[in-house]
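Case study 2.
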Amino acid sequence: MTLAQKLPLVESFSSADFRSHFPPLQDMAHMASCSQGALSTALLSGLNSLTSSLTESGAPWGLWMDEVETLRRKFAKFINASPEEIAIVPSASEGAYQVASSFSWASRERDAIVTSALEFPSVGHVWRAQQAQGVRIKSVEDRFAALDANNWARHIDDSVQFVSVPLVSYHDGSRAPLGAISALAREAGAQVFVDAYQGAGVVPIDVRAMDCDYLVTGTLKYMLGLAGVAFIYVRDGIASERAPELTGWFGRVNPFEFNPDHVDYPKEARRFESGTPAIPAVYAANAGLDLLATVDQARGYEHVEALAESLADQLLRDGERLSRPGSPELCGPQVAIYDEDPVALSAFLHDRRVMSAPRGELLRLSVHYYTTTDDITAVVDAVRAYRSR
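Prediction:
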């Protein structure tokens, strides 16, 4: 029986109940989920199950493959997709590459990818590396400009194959108007690619409602797993113009045929898979999804939004300078503080058991279902103490 079965979904939301599954949070404000989710008893139990499989069976491939397919089904349900639309890959970067490289760019009229300064660098690198294959990059270069759909409209036309929009920006947690941008893409006949890594796990995701063609995300951050597992959602298993060159035995119709001469591809999203998945990360991902399945995503995100807004308001009252959109609908589960030395500020907070994630000129503070008002107070007090040294 999974944790999700033991703890059925309830209509009400209790951060305290959810938090009880994370022992380190007894004396810690974990505000770094945008980098790594907090450690749960579910994850530890999952890794113990992996260890037991090795102890009891030696080479338990049947159990491991069951775990992989269980993960595929759980994630599909989590985003309102079908299992046939899900590929399991090592990272979102590889997921982006598999999508980009599935087009014959040099021979097509639609030869452009629209991106923006909101893009996580790794995904942006994948798009730009495809310029060697004939891709033209069209980009909304300013982060704040990318929060206005009108600035995307200038780049989206009938030369565009797909438009890449992050669900949440890694930089400061801002959210581009995905619905409006998707509508522009549809009007121009372009596809929509969503990088959901900085929101999946707290920001509700329904790929049908989002009307996206591709979505990638991974389990390291808000999804409460470990590095090594990511997903590609492919709407209706969209057929590739080119067969994936990055492939392997998991990208075959029957991975256990063991015929090196027979390179066939499933008609579903699995064709984008390559080698053996990172099995420890698969166990961890299943554990994280079991925990997340106990929470109604909409109610949980109301909690996240309220605490993020409260944190931002208190920091602003203290005179902190934030990188944060003025409109609430453009704000995500993160609050980012400008600082001359975010690493030093993060270290100071760490010593006070407040975990954060410095990036560039910003200190990022992220809210999860397990975040409480006491955590917000701990953050504000620690930042005040740092400024008053």
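The chain is about 35% helix and 15% strand.
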